[in-house]
Design brief:
Layout lengths: L5 H6 L4 E2 L3 H12 L7 E4 L11 H18 L8 E3 L7 E4 L20 E4 L6 H4 L4 H11 L3
Antiparallel strand pairs: 1-3, 2-5, 3-4, 4-5
């Protein structure tokens, strides 16, 4: 995997966390207002999409992911969505509330997000960031496979 890929470069760049639910509402509204802006919606672990979603599908995704986040992340704060820019977002990482680990970046191997919304065509994140060697060795020991 080419680590210089524009998607991977952006993925590894600077992001700000959405701390409060009203801030998330504002981010969704900004993205909805740019629904025809060529957003890719990528469920990490599945094949990356080949094309951007249509505006109605983008709105449906936002509605559904917002519902899931609020239901599964029963906190009075958000803290699981990160955007490259709140005023003109082009890249959003959404972490799965059921697989958080240490998402703030203080870990050597933070978990991958559950979903990514991007104006750049995604590449496979699991291929770009394989599990650490100790996890691969564990897997090989248990199952005898690569």
């Amino acid at each position: 995997m080419n680590q210089a890929d524009p998607f991977l470069t952006k993925f590894k760049g600077a992001f700000s966390g959405v701390l409060r639910w009203p801030q998330l509402d504002a981010l969704w509204e900004t993205i909805r207002n740019d629904a025809h802006g060529g957003w890719y919606v990528y469920a990490v672990g599945h094949e990356p999409p080949e094309s951007a979603v249509a505006g109605d599908k983008l709105n449906e995704f936002i509605t559904e992911i917002d519902r899931l986040l609020r239901k599964d992340h029963e906190e009075d704060y958000c803290g699981i969505v990160y955007a490259d820019d709140f005023k003109k977002p082009t890249f959003v990482k959404i972490y799965d509330p059921n697989n958080l680990g240490v998402v703030c970046g203080s870990s050597d191997n933070p978990p991958l997000p559950g979903w990514v919304m991007s104006k750049l065509k995604p590449v496979s994140l699991p291929d770009a960031f394989p599990p650490p060697g100790n996890r691969r060795r564990w897997w090989q020991r248990v199952f005898g496979k690569n």
